[in-house]
Amino acid sequence: MVSQDVTSIDLVVVGPTASGKTVWATEWALKNNAEVVSADSRQIYRRLEIGTAKPSRDILNAVPHHLIDILNPDQSYSAGTFCREARTAILDVKSRGKKVVLVGGTGLYIRSLLFGILELPDEDLLLKKSFFDLWGSKTAEELHEELTRRDPDRAKSLSVSDRYRVMRSLWLSEWMGIPPTKLFASRSLKGVPFNRIVGLDPGRHALCERIDKRVVSMMQRGWCEEVQQLLANGCAPEDPAFRSLGYPEVLDCLKGKRGLEDTIAIVQRKTRQFAKRQMTWFRHMTPVEWIGNSTSV
Predict the structure, then answer these.
(1) 50, 124, 167, 251: least buried by Cβ within 10 Å?
(2) In terms of C-beta density within 10 A (0-12 exposed, 13-18 middle, 19 or more buried), how is residue 177 classed?
(3) Are 263 and 269 in contact (CB under 8 A)?
(4) Where are the alpha helices (DSSP H) in 21-162?
(5) Alpha-carbon distance 141 to 157, whole Å?
(6) Domains located in the chain, CATH noted
């Protein structure tokens, strides 16, 4: 998918947590006069350093990074906002004659930026609940028949058994008042052209070892103290930033709900599970060129 478009991304680096994306992308950027656009939904938060595995100050000083440290812990973010801000960052880098490397493990952000996203206003949650209460008990056949009545073109593109997408399409039709097919055509933010996607896969055993060691290292470097400082500075446990992987468990540890060793074990397990989900996501994202990250850049 090679493009000479001024907004094109020269390289995309994906992979599970602890696969070595940051180092790999930094080395590529240094060799290719590039800057990094981060696609990490947790590294956007200021003051969350250790638990989000944010690039070191040396790396940030060596290569300019965009979309890191852009929000306070109590602020929310979305894939749509990411796409708009990433486009702005890409244009900025390209305007200075430099290349762009997009790197991160947030699959939704990356897929939305590369392949497009449907931009919608904030949902009416009460209306949505009422709709799903009403239609949730219908059979798959009944749902598909209703979608055929409302939007024949959309219904033809979906299997009767694809209950989730059929229900989503019906909800969009109800909420926005127009058939989903027309909605997609009028409100879609098109994807950004890219030249190459590299996926880092160190192998399951090696990845699990890295994850386990990294969680221990994070604790040794002061992850608990980082969270204590955030709370002391006014952050609340319900802030969006504290939904980041591992932070709820550290909060529980600080509250005395479990000891440090048990906390480490739980965070290790949840991180391994998260990495597995990331790999599943990226395996379905074509065309990714999978390599072991020991391979030279």
Answers:
(1) 124
(2) exposed
(3) no
(4) 21-31, 57-62, 79-95, 107-115, 125-135, 140-150, 152-157
(5) 15
(6) 11-118+190-200+285-291 (3.40.50.300), 125-189 (1.10.20.140), 204-277 (1.10.287.890)
